[in-house]
Amino acid sequence: MTGGADGDLRIAVTGAGGRMGREVIEAAAARDDVEVALAVNRTPTDPVAGVDVADAARLDDLLADADPDVLVDFTGPESAVEYAETAAEAGVAVVTGTTGFDSGGTARLRAASEAVPLLRASNFARGVAALRRAVREAVVAVPDYDVELTETHHNGKRDAPSGTAKTLLDDVEGVREEARGDSAGGDGLDRRVHGREGDSPREPTEIGVHARRAGDVTGEHEVLLAGNRETLSLTHRAGDRGVFAEGALDAAAWLSGREPGRYEFDDVLGDGVSE
Ligand SMILES: NC(=O)C1=CN([C@@H]2O[C@H](COP(=O)(O)OP(=O)(O)OC[C@H]3O[C@@H](n4cnc5c(N)ncnc54)[C@H](OP(=O)(O)O)[C@@H]3O)[C@@H](O)[C@H]2O)C=CC1
Ligand SMILES: O=C(O)C1=N[C@H](C(=O)O)C[C@H](O)C1
Question: Which residues form the active site (predicted)?
Fold first, then answer.
C-alpha cells in the first residue's frame, strides 16, 4: 500500500453525508491504516465520525490542498462521473461504488481511467464476488435452465434494477451466449423481462428480473435456476453497509499507486474471496 508520510492510505470521500459515505468514514476511523484526508458533500453536513465535511462544489481546490491517494465515491451517477473527472485532473485515483451509470457516464469514466487508476464495482461485498463465481459455474452446468433474478433493497434506493443485479445478469448472459456459441458482445438471444404481466407463457430465452423496494433492507440478490424437476437458488444477503465500506477501503488500498486504467473488485481479490 502506498500512502502518506506515515504509510497510511489517505482517502477523499465524496457523498460524505450519504448512507455509504458515512459508512466509509466510520470504517476508515476503525482502521489504523487509512486516514480520511478530505470529506465532501453536495449539501451542508455535520461532521461524520469527527471528520469535517466540506462543500463538494470546491472539490478541485480541496483535492489540490489535501492531496489524497484515492477518492472513494458513493454518490449518484452524474456526480460520480464529475467527481471522477475532477480527481483525474488532480491525478488522484478513483474507487467508485456508485451504480446506475448510462452509456455516456460509462464512457466518461473510461476516459478518466486513461489518466488515473479507476476501480468501479457494483458491489464491494466479498460474498457477492463469491456469488458471481457460483452463478457462472451453475449456468455452465445447467445452461438450459430458466433463470430469474430477484433483488431487494431499502425504500431509499433510486436505481432499479440494482447495479449488482445488472452485473449478475451480464454474467449469466455471457455464460449462456458462450454455451450457445452466440457471438460475443452481448447481442445474444437472451431477453431481460422486468416484472411480468399479461397472458403469454415464459420464453426459454427470457431472464426474469424482479426489483423489490421495502423498509431498510440493506441488499439481497437471489439467482434462481430452474429445470422441470429441480430448482437451484443462490442468494446473498448483506447484513449491514459496513461490508461494502470495508471492501471499498480494501480496493482503495490495492489501487493506490497502480498504473492508470480500469480495474475491478475481482482484481483486488485475485483468486480468493476470503478475508
Ligand atoms: N458498490 C457497492 O458495494 C454499493 C453501492 N452503492 C451505491 O452507492 C450509491 C449511493 O448510495 P447511498 O449512500 O445509499 O445513497 P444516499 O442517497 O444515502 O447518498 C447519496 C450521496 O450522494 C450525494 N449525491 C447524490 N446525487 C448527487 C448529485 N447529483 N450531486 C452531488 N451529490 C449527489 C448525496 O448528497 P446530498 O446529501 O447532498 O443529497 C449523498 O451524499 C448508489 O448508487 C448505490 O447504489 C450502495 C451500497 C453499496
Ligand atoms: O443502493 C444500495 O443500497 C446498494 N446498491 C448496490 C447495487 O445497486 O447493487 C449494492 C448493494 O446491493 C446496495
Answer: 153, 157
